[in-house]
Amino acid sequence: MKFGVVVFPGSNCDEDAYHAVSAVLGEPVEFLWHRSENIPGCDAIILPGGFAFGDYLRTGAIARFSPVMHAVERFARRGGLVLGICNGFQILLEAGLLPGAMLRNRALRFLCRDVHLRVETTNTPFTSVAQRGQILKIPIAHMEGNYFCDAKTLEELGCNDQIVLRYATPEGEIEDSANPNGSLAAIAGICNRERNVFGMMPHPERAVEASLGSTDGLVIFRSMVNSLGHSARSTAGKTAALA
Amino acid sequence: MIETETKITPAIAAQHGLTAEEFAHVQKILGRDPSITELGIFSVMWSEHCSYKSSKAHLKRLPTVGTRIVQGPGENAGVVDVGDGLCAVFKIESHNHPSFVEPFQGAATGVGGILRDIFTMGARPIAVLDSLRFGPLHTDQNVTAAEAARNRRILDGVIGGIAFYGNCFGVPTVGGEIQFEPCYSYNPLVNVLAMGIARREDLFFARAKGPGNPVIYVGAKTGRDGIHGASLLASAEFSEESQQKRPNVQVGDPFMEKLLLEACLEVMRTGAVVAIQDMGAAGLTSSSCEMASRGGLGVEIELGRVPQRETGMTPYEIMLSESQERMLLIAQRGREREVFDVFSKWGLDAVEIGRVTDDGRLRILENGRVVADIPAHAIAEEGPVYKRPIAAQKSMQAAGPLVEFAANGADLNENFCNLLASPAIASKRWAFGQYDYMVRTNTRVAPGVGDAAVVRIKGTKRALALSTDGNGRWCQLSPRIAAMHAVAEAARNVACSGARPVAATNCLNFGNPEKPEVMRQFSEAIDGITDACRGLGTPITGGNVSFYNETLGRAIYPTPVIGVLGILDDAECALGMAFQREGDAIVLLNGLAEARGAINEQRKSFSSSDYAKSIRGIVAGGPPPIDLYAEKALVDCLVALAAERVVKSAHDVSDGGLAVTIAECCFASAGFAAQVNLESEAPAEFALFEESGARAVISVQSDSLARVQHIAAQYKVEAQRLGTVTTGEFCIQLNGQPAIRAAVDKLCKIWAGSLERSLQNELQNE
Known about the structure:
heterodimer, A: 243 residues, alpha/beta, 9-stranded mixed β-sheet, two-stranded antiparallel sheet, globular, B: alpha+beta, 7-stranded mixed β-sheet, 28 strands, 37% helix
């Protein structure tokens, strides 16, 4: 199983994601330059944090036109796992792979700090090894993380169990004081209806080593590895059965 | 002969900031009158900012060599061997005047400038710290509402600018300090320290080699921004019209800089690059003639090939532009294609604009016509050097009435709460919470939780620690002693994190050097830094001098800011300041281990403390005496304790004294409090809040206490148990009597929210 980390001009958490997958998780990983038109051999794609194309115009607005995004879109349509972290989440929104948009944080300031997240569903390949209601301590670092969508979309997100992570108190309460940026419904992460594309504003790659403060981000990566392992085995099983 | 439209007279030269003698020297070097372009080149290169003409004679006294020092002052940044074949490349620089004129862009480009100094040497930047000074945020009898409002806007803009640039570039802003004094109202200080890491064999230097080699311009296009930034903004006092200098402030594009970083590091790996230098102050002028001068060669440049973003720029404007995010590099002839390919991949301009020559001259052409032709060495190295007059040494006298210690009537509890809420002591989370201090996932000790920032080096066991420090108020009272304290405190901070201090960088912010009193302050500060850096084993590897920090004739406090770098051989030994467990012993390490002088000495040193300023409104006396042997002993002791892993937290005693230090260990923790008893014959206020050095508060597991005391004794450091880590109530007793007593939550709220509260309230009122 191999991870691919996309590098846009201005990505700056690409090496951190690479480090988390490679040095901490021990899984194979490679960088994918944004001009790549295909992504051969990758089982999961990470769109990392940063300021792709300087976040000029709007966060993610220019990055979505990079050649690699066509490949990512095809990969996602075929059911491949796509994780967008922070700027990566913003790019997924601009690319239409996830619904909604990001506004500036309600305090109109960049915010960098640990937040607490409540796992709302484990029915995704990104949270499958978590417990429902589990609290994760993972940092945020963004200026535009104030998630917004229209009422109909929000209803659909709820009905289809697409809200994956919410900002919460350390005890797991959803309160306004625990919502760092003003996100609608305290949304910190959502997936698509097919559940294989997931965007989150907090940085799980920054929470994979105890020496840096938290290992709660491992849940996201381990879930992905776990899901891919299962699908690899089941594909292998099917192939064997067919043979 | 160079055709020149206008005859350059001494009067025109004076408008460019050159004195009559300097102009005569220019004429002598050239053997003729300069052209207007040449005049511009001399005026920026011989400006105070670029030439160090007033400071050079004094800077020579600084200690700059040591076994770990790979590169001292004179290159783009200092280089220190940190083991495992790796080098730390670091330097601190000021961007004070631009940050007053345009706080957001001034601070942003301050960050951008120092980052380029780091990666131009082949090092990837891994940490930034900011040492900031502002005027008061609140109105009082000396501060008008308009002044306070402007100070708040400057603070807001500077923090926003630093965040804007560093966050996008992708370097963690991991530390620094913020202080407030009335003298910074019209002249804030923005000093930025950046550090990068490189393999020793991958370092690059800015020395031209190989006549015939192409000179290649890379990065952003040249515009009219920042012309005369170095000479007019950074090398002159300010007046009321200074806001009109806004066009002299550069505009930063951190995205462009990020691309430039990646492209430069990639192109350096090709082996096709001979030398490289960023275009910072004095832009194309300084980068070209400094590379030529260092290599003992010449450079010829055709301005018609320089990428320009505006039309009709004159040679003068192109040579003096300080447009950001540009580099000049010299490649091997025949390998230009490799260079162009890398920059094209990153979408950046890379254009051959000239070549290295062997005649030692900086020759500038505009479409084939020579517009400047000057010996490169003469501009870069033969600038004026002044031994400015120095005022006579003043006897250390009180600047005003000294503090009278309160009899038993002082409300220590209330004064303590007010001290915690004072801008100097209050939490700075509002500021550093806007910085991405975690990107690159190396931050072991983040801002606010340790005395020094600690970043690990991936792929090794090591980590590096950094701290900046400088107390302008003390320096106003006694420059020499205060400068020593600045070095000692930065080193102590680094040692509290467990790292051994190994090198230093300095940013010297002073007033107008043409005033003998300012030069006295400067000279004494240099002496203090020299003594302390010798005593503590931290040579100076570089830095920056910022003179003319005066507006309307009002000088800032002399403010030398010292950055100290430390090495942790084992990152796992890194320490923060937070108490870790209920029941742990709270211990005071004291290198001085002596009673602190007679009552008059106590009054004198206490009158310069944060308590005296914030609670009593007194700034007088002088800094506490300093004992470098005691400081060194404490540093060595802290490093030994951390290496043995017998200590759970460490925090040096500084601003606000012992009471504030212990409180901060609680505030940084997961809700712990402290129960402490101090034995002292001194007045209560002195015992609780005095700020003398060579002390640190540590917490240790009770059964390790004997071991800690044993190690401390080896370093002749006293380790005295003060009390115990508790929960709930924060209590400091003095000789068995309660002096300060309050719920730790309540105290923490006062301390944590003070800065944000004052900004919010005041901003709403505007």
